[in-house]
Write a structure and sequence with these properties.
Layout lengths: L7 E6 L4 E6 L2 E6 L1 E11 L1 H10 L6 E11 L14 E3 L9 E2 L8 E8 L2 E5 L7
Antiparallel strand pairs: 1-2, 1-5, 2-3, 4-5, 4-8, 6-7, 6-9, 8-9
């Protein structure tokens, strides 16, 4: 069971071809779509380098945030789409999650939506000058 008041980690599960929702030391759910708020994207650099050197996939990059909603792979419903920028992570090219449009590193966002087409985010508005 997922405790909604506690943060979760989300990562792409290559073996099962869906997202895994991790909390309290265990995978709590699988999902084909997820909505997180107050999101931080993390990459463990030493584990990324080891994965690149050894050529073996590992869980070293993930998002941490507050779970708003998710859709289990067997469910027949959709989450509300996001229209924000697409974020990607490629361990062979990048050391962080990056905006697909600009290549700019993305570390924190207001919200993120994960689904079969990738990850879209809602970024904070720039501070007024």
């Amino acid at each position: 069971m997922i405790e909604r008041r506690q943060p979760v980690r989300v990562y792409w599960n290559f073996k099962h071809r869906c997202y895994s929702i991790f909390q309290g030391g265990a995978v709590r759910a699988s999902a084909r779509a997820i909505h997180l708020d107050d999101v931080e994207f993390r990459v463990r650099e030493a584990a990324r380098r080891r994965m690149v050197e050894q050529g073996r996939k590992s869980i070293h990059a993930y998002a941490i945030g507050r779970l708003v909603d998710f859709v289990h792979p067997a469910e027949d419903r959709e989450l509300t789409p996001f229209s924000g920028p697409v974020v990607r992570y490629d361990p062979y090219r990048d050391t962080s999650f990056v905006s697909l449009d600009s290549g700019r590193p993305i570390h924190r966002v207001l919200a993120a939506r994960f689904d079969e087409s990738g990850v879209r985010v809602v970024e904070a508005e720039p501070a007024a000058a």
